[in-house]
Amino acid sequence: MRFNQRFPREIRYLLRNHARTFALTLAILPRSLREPLGVGYLLARASDTIADAGKISRERRVALLEQLLGNLESALSGGSPKGRWGWVPVMMPGELDESQAELITAVPRLINALEISPDSDELLKLWRLILEGQLFDLRRFPSDEPLNREELERYCFLVAGSVGECWTALIAKHSPCTLLRSEEEMKRLGCDYGKGLQLLNILRDRAEDRAMGRDYVEEGDLAELFELAEAWLRSGEKYLTGLRPGRLLMGTALPYDLALPTLWKMKQSPDAARVRISRRDVRSVVIRGAASLCLPRRMNPAS
After folding, report:
1. DSSP class per residue in 104-120
2. How far is Cα 12 from Cα 190, in angstroms, rounded to an integer?
3. pLDDT band at residue 85, thresholds of 50, 70 and 90?
4. 301: phi then psi, degrees, rounded to nearest 5
5. Rounded Cα–Cα distance for residues 206 and 266 (Å)
6. CB burial class (10 A; 0-12, 13-18, 19+) of residue 198?
7. Are 187 and 164 in contact (CB under 8 A)?
8. 3-state DSSP: the chain helix, strand, coil percent, rounded to 5?
9. Residue 82's pLDDT band (cuts 50, 70, 90)
10. Which is the most buried residue in 154, 159, 205, 294, by most CB within 10 A?
C-alpha cells in the first residue's frame, strides 16, 4: 500500500489540531514531501508533549522518553524489524488533556505510516536527534544555572539544526535539481539556519521559560546572542540563494522572512514583552513568496 494512501485523513486531522502553522507550510511543499514530513512533525510533537506534560513527574517523563529513544535506536540499527517496534506509553487518568491524549494515542499508527515511507530512515534519525534534545532539556532543568555556550549550541543543533540537515537531504533525494550549491554546503548552511530559528525562539521566550525554571541564557549575554542569532539566520539567507524558485524555496523561506523582522524588533527593545509581528506583516510575507509559484514550470523544477 502506498504511503500517500495509508492514513491521509487521520494525518490531516491531527495536523489541523496539533500543527496549524506547520500545516500551512506543508501545503506549499511538493506533494511527495507533505505526508512524510507531516508524520515526522507529529511524532516529534508527541514526544515533546510528554516532555512538557506538567502533571507527570519529571522522573517518569525522562523514563518514558528514554524508553522511546531505546526503541528508536534499536529500529535504526536493525534490531527491531519494521512494523514490530513502537512506543505506547501507559498514561494514568488525568495526566494528559483530551488533545494531548489524542496525539499520544495516534503514535503507533503514525510510526507504522512513517515506516512505509521511502524517507523513514532520514526522518527516524531526525526524530532521534530531536528526542536527545528533549531529554537534555528535561535532565538539565529546572535549574538556576543558565546554559553555557557549548550547551546552548548543542541544544540548538539537536532540536533545530538537525532539521536543516535532514531537510537538505530530503531535497537532494526528491528534487536534486533544486539545489544550486553542493549538498554538503547546503547541509551546513541549513544546520545554522535551524539553529538561528531556535535561538531566536529562546531569546524571545526567555522570560516565560525562566519562570518555569528553564534559564537558557544570561541576560548579560543578550547583545552577543542577538548577533549570534543574526549570523546563523544570515546562513539561512545564503541557504535560500542555493534553491531554485518554486514551492521548496517558498516553504523554506517563510520561517526566515518571519524571523528576521522579529529579531530586529527584539534588538530594538530587548526588555519588551514577548515580541510578535503583525498578521498584516505575515500576510505580506506569504503574498511575496507566492509570486515564485507563478513562474513557468521549467523555472520551477520542484513545483
Report:
1. HHHHHHHHHHHHTSTTH
2. 27
3. low
4. -60, -20
5. 12
6. buried
7. yes
8. 75, 0, 25
9. low
10. 159
Find the length of the chain. 303
- CB 12: neighbour CB atoms within 10 A? 15
| Residues contacting 199, CB < 8 A, separation 6+ | 152, 156, 225, 228, 229, 232
* Cβ atoms of 46 and 103 closer than 8 Å: yes
- pLDDT range class, residue 5, cuts 50, 70, 90: very low
Domain at 141-303, CATH class: mainly alpha
Three-class DSSP category at 143 = strand
**CA 151 → CA 8, 133, 163, 271, distances in Å?**
39, 10, 18, 24
- Distance, in Å, from the CA atom of 139 to the CA atom of 106, rounded to the nearest integer, reads 26
Res 84: pLDDT? 57
Q: Which tens digits make up the pLDDT trace of 94-143?
A: 899 999 999 999 998 898 888 888 999 999 999 999 999 999 999 999 99
Q: What is the DSSP string of 187-238?
A: HHHHHHHHHHHHHHHHHHTHHHHHHTTB--S-GGGHHHHHHHHHHHHHHHHH
- The C-alpha cell that represents 240 in the structure block: 535560500
Beta-carbon count within 10 A of 300 CB: 19
Parse the chain into domains and list their residue ranges.
1-119, 141-303
* Among 75-79, 151-155, 178-182, 254-258, the least confident range: 75-79
**Rounded to an integer, what distance in angstroms lies between the CA atom of residue 165 and that of residue 271?**
33
